[in-house]
Amino acid sequence: MLEFTLKRIALATAAAAALSAGAASAQEACTNYTVTDGDTLATISIAAYGTSNYQPIFNANRNIISNPTELKPGLVLALPCEDGSLPNGQSAQELIAAEEARNASNRVSNVYEPPIKIVTGGNYAPFADEDLTGGGFLVRLATTALNRAGNSRDYSVSFVNDWSAHLDTLLPLGAFDVSLAWYIPDCSNRSYEWSEETNKRCTQFDSTVSVYDTVIGFYTLPDSEYAKARSFEDFKGATVCRMDGWFTHDLEENGVYEPNVTLLRPVTATECMDAVLTGVADVASFEVQLAADAMSDMGLTPNDIVENPFVNTVAGLRFVTHRTNPFGRQYVAMLNRGLNEMRESGEWYAIISDTLREHNEKLTASN
């Protein structure tokens, strides 16, 4: 089962704007902002965009932010424009067009090589969706990477919405070569007891470099004792809510797992948020994008449920191949070469921001 769900950039609310008005009035979209003492990515995002979803700022500054909870005063952040482009830079469309032109003359090998068979799932915009340009940004990143950094490889893309079948059946049997995209744990870390799922992902699959890093937040009531937890150790004894089917290796790595905590596993993010509101759970934990979306859907403001400013994790979505595939590691190497070049050229960010722009325009038109 795919761990990420449909995420939307939360719409600005009057309450959020009021919360941020006095705190960080200098932050504006489409500018460069110098961090001051007391700033967090969430407060900057609220001031600049009216939403606590700071994932777009994290995306734009991934090269200089390693831990979202540790912003040092003096750090200069690029705050993306409303269309996703960076201040004082080319638009996403201009950069993508330039890279396409630069790579148009890639030589194709005279030796026949079968198309690489890619599988993903639909209806998960902006990540993977047949109604978006190129099938969503994960698909666009994968297919573009196969024609960058000296690669020149044909491919086919299929959408299979039974996500569990990707890892359980389709890749092991060779029906497809590459699946997009999965959270893979740090398989070099054996300092904790691996769950069955963690063991499976580390022993049966090879994966690319991280394609897209997402911030996983921890959300509580404002007056909860866990709202000011300074470390994962402080969550011991809590009831933590994370949706059924989602990865838990980041919790396992940090000791936030049974029996140290009680883990609640409902189906949706809104159920987790409701569990916190009603006291059934102490903490809800999932992506900051999804949290902003769930709060918007429920009519909540940052005054109702707060993100812990000291504790979070960063998880990377990766493209995977099965280890029984004789060409799997070759495909991983090709994708890595292309992805690394795309990050250096800016095309990686341009594709993500261009897809987010398209997705947001569709959402606005449908409202």
From TrEMBL:
Keyword Signal: yes
Keyword terms, alphabetized: Signal
Matches recorded under Gene3D superfamilies: LysM domain, Periplasmic binding protein-like II
LysM domain segment(s): 31-79
Domain of life of the native organism: Bacteria
Database matches in InterPro entries: LysM, LysM_dom_sf, Solute-binding_3/MltF_N
Signal sequence, start to end: 1-26
Protein name as annotated: Peptidoglycan-binding protein LysM
